[in-house]
Write a structure and sequence with these properties.
globular; 5 strands; Universal_stress_UspA; Rossmann fold; UspA; single chain; five-stranded parallel β-sheet; alpha/beta
Length: about 160
Amino acid sequence: MTNTAYKKIVVAVDGSATSDLALAEAIRIAGTGGAQVLVLYVVDNGQLMFDVEYYDPTPVLQALADSGERALAAAAQRLSAQGVPHETRLVTQQAVGGDIASAVNDAAAEWGADLIVIGTHGRRGVRRLVLGSVAESVIRQASVPVLLVRGQAAQG
């Protein structure tokens, strides 16, 4: 039996163990139906959107982009090993600084995705309220189905 529902799958990665689980799920789904996968890494520039005299955020942004490139290369290697057709994309600019969810949804829409796969860290209570949830924001904004892949629940 083949999966005919999804032909273009976006998977968001961030280098975490949870995003590795999301990538594994995207590979599994793509493998059953011959789908293409777009691996997306969004550089979180939200923390750098402040105006401080004598501060140049360029080295920090470059380090974040380098980390993203490494995560994308590792994902591409896994997809190639499984014979899954794929692309990678590093998003360094968001319309609103730090709005990762919008960047994910915008990339999915632009690419014509019919599924978004994203990991969720399983935070609850106050930690979720304080830290927010990119996955929850992706769901709220998405125009296509979103598959959440849960990592280990955070302690504390």
